[in-house]
Amino acid sequence: MSFRYYIIIIILCCCCSTSKQKQSETDAAPTSAILQMTPQSRLYTAEYKIHKIITHNDVIHLKGNLLNQDYNLELPAGTRKLAFPIDVTLKAYVDLTQLSEEHIKKENGKITIILPDPKVQVTSVQINHREKKQLIDLTRSRYSDEEIQQLAKQGVNSILKLIPDMGIIETARLNTTKTLVPILTSLGYSSEEIIIQFRKPFTVDDLPLIVDPENITFLKP
After folding, report:
1. Binning pLDDT at 50, 70 and 90, where does residue 150 land?
2. Is residue 71 part of a domain?
3. Are 125 and 50 in contact (CB under 8 A)?
4. How far apart are CA 186 and CA 188, in angstroms?
5. pTM of the model
6. Which residue from 13, 125, 130, 136 has the fewest beta carbons nearer than 10 Å?
7. What confidence category does residue 198 fall into, taking pLDDT thresholds of 50, 70 and 90?
8. β-bridge partners, 74
9. Domain span at residue 117?
10. Half-sphere exposure of 114 (CA within 13 A, CB side)
11. DSSP at 77
12. Are strands 119-127 and 80-95 parallel, antiparallel or unpaired?
């Protein structure tokens, strides 16, 4: 065998060795290592501040039946109206303590991480009492603090129902990805080999799953 063929064989061996070494470096990051490198905590990655005006019109109706005819009359006196602003802060997080080996898939040199379902937490509800406006007839009493709190709760409820459409879940996903990708690249994966996704798209029907358990009462009447 000529000297030239020896050189070709050596080059091929080096290429194979380099390829195997690169593959071994990629495979050298076992699932346990990924879990150890991942923050074992709630990862807050999105914050939205929402301003909303709460309005309420409380009218007294006279209802009854006369000569087999139902009637529902709005009394001219006895009306009261209320308007006040609230500022609600929502924070989205992914609880990475729930991340386990079953959420990490390796196939064809790529790694897929299916994140635990995101949660949205109501961290602040501020009622602006200075800008509160009440229009009360003489025959009616002013709105009580309890009534105002209940109306504010209904306002938060209406905000939470917009979660699937407001983009906070997508923002949380994007920012979580920005956090996890550098961790995975440090373990030998290229950005093209990394896929990070949630379990499913979320709709209004999924609100009990998305809203933080501590805030689930906001969804109740």
Report:
1. very high
2. yes
3. no
4. 5
5. 0.74
6. 130
7. confident
8. 61
9. 26-219
10. 10
11. S
12. antiparallel
**Within a domain: residue 76?**
yes
Does residue 15 form part of some domain? no
What tokens does 167 get? 């983009």
User: Could you tell me the two tokens for 24?
Assistant: 């071994």
Residues in the chain, how many? Answer: 221
Report the b/e string of 108-129 with b at 16+ CB within 10 A: eeebebbbbbbbbbbeebebee
Instruction: Kindly state the average pLDDT of the residues 128-145.
Output: 89
Residue 58 counted as domain residue: yes
Tokens 């009637």: give the residue. Answer: 71
* Domain tally, the chain: 1
DSSP state of 211: B
Task: Flag whether pLDDT at 66 surpasses 80.
Answer: no
Measured on CA atoms in the order 62, 64, 66, 68, is the torsion positive or negative?
Answer: positive
Selected residue with higher pLDDT from 99 and 156: 156
